[in-house]
Amino acid sequence: MITFFRKIRKNLLSEGKSIRYLKYAIGEIILVVIGILIALQINNWNQNRMDNKVEHIYLHGLKVEFQISKLKLEELISVIHKNYSGAQEILKYIHSKNELPSESEFSKLLYQTFSEDDAFNPNTSLIYEMINSGNLKNLKNTNLRKHLTNWISTLEDVSKQEEELASQRIKVIDMFRTNEASLSVVFKQAGVYSDLGLPKSKNEMSNLGLLESTAFENNVLIFILTCYATEKAHFQPLMRDLDTILDLIRKEIEQQ
Q1: DSSP per residue over the chain, as a string?
Q2: Contact 72, 121 (CB under 8 A)
Q3: Cβ(102)–Cβ(157) below 8 Å
Q4: 20 to 30 A Cα–Cα from 14, which one of 31, 43, 167, 185?
Q5: Which of 204, 185, 235, 195 is closest to 84 using CA atoms?
Q6: Residue 159 confidence (pLDDT) above 70
Q7: Which pTM does this prediction carry?
Q8: How far apart are CA 8 and CA 136, in angstroms?
């Protein structure tokens, strides 16, 4: 094709047809420009198609990741409710001297309230990969990108609150590191002593005396307040953020 155009230009010049040659040259330039524009358009179309494909993969991956994180958070909120309710029940016994629980009831209540940790462990592998690799820019929705970036900093704040809650739980458990209470009694009465493979103990000391301890009451109260603050000020806002992100992801997927 290039040889063909070159031959035409040579013939026009040899025949002294300058005006026709000029017109031809201009037309050839226009054809070249049009060809370049078409090539760029095709390249842009291919690039957009590839970008849309990558975004589609990321959006579906994020959807799964945040759906799993939501299930984990729902389960965690259920655990903190149980811990909170158990601590309230203990406080009720402290203030109701005429309605003391049995040793078995008290041990089961202690075990159920303070044995489970309240730590959120969300799925974050994909979002961290996107942020660290700079691929977060593949998401066209700026609002979604902002929420995903804020999500990471929010998790860091929640983690600090969880550390505080764990600290308050440990302070209650530390009451069993003294001679005033028996952890083996709790394990036996709660039905978990044999499951832990521990040797039988003859220690039949009662833990009901803890209900008379001001230090125990104070630790339980602080634990209740920390549970309340963790759920209301951290877990519930985190759930709202999670629902917002999932809603934005679903809308982006539907628009593709």
Answers
A1: -HHHHHHHHHHHHHTT-HHHHHHHHHHHHHHHHHHHHHHHHHHHHHHHHHHHHHHHHHHHHHHHHHHHHHHHHHHHHHHHHHHHHHHHHHHHHHH-TTSPPPHHHHHHHHHHHHSS--------HHHHHHHHHTGGGG---HHHHHHHHHHHHHHHHHHHHHHHHHHHHHHHHGGGGSTT--HHHHHHHTT-TTTTTPPP-------GGGGG-HHHHHHHHHHHHHHHHHIIIIIHHHHHHHHHHHHHHHHHHHH-
A2: yes
A3: no
A4: 31
A5: 235
A6: yes
A7: 0.78
A8: 53
Counting every residue written for the chain, the total comes to 256
Phi, psi of 57 (to 5 degrees): -65, -45
Backbone angles phi, psi at 146, to 5 degrees: -65, -45
Q: How far is it, in rounded angstroms, from Cα 82 to Cα 85?
A: 5
pLDDT score, position 240: 96
The count of other CB atoms within 10 Å of the CB of residue 102 is 10
- Cα separations in angstroms, 130 against 54, 125, 142: 11, 9, 14
Q: What is the pLDDT of residues 86-108, one digit of tens each?
A: 999 999 999 987 788 999 999 99
Confidence grade of residue 54 (pLDDT, cut at 50, 70, 90): confident
Instruction: Classify 123 in phi/psi space as left (phi over 0), alpha (psi -120 to 50) or beta.
Output: beta
Token pair listed for 122 = 């969300």
Q: Which of 45, 125, 112, 118 is nearest to 80 (CA)?
A: 118
Could you tell me the two tokens for 110? 């202690």
